[in-house]
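ENTRY TYPE: protein
CONTENTS: sequence, structure tokens:
***
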Amino acid sequence: MLLKVAQRYGEGRLLALLDPEDLSGVTPAVNREWVRLVVLGGVVVGTALGANLLGVPDSASGPLTGVVTVVTVGVLYGVRLVSTDLIDVMRGQSRK
């Protein structure tokens, strides 16, 4: 099966790497990415709103929201997305 996938990938048949009979009896993976995005959005908006309601100065609320965002991304995505890579994306740079 791996040889079939490799051959079809090499041929550029990315939408037909396996035949339908190869996939019979296989349960598809559940995509829960939307949960992570909703939690991340809620934490970021909650941090910004909370900082505003608590009277945190504007010069400190921006960095506070940024730090909380980076920490939350690290917690939600773990090793799949390194938090410092998010900082590089925001700065328009890449270390890779």
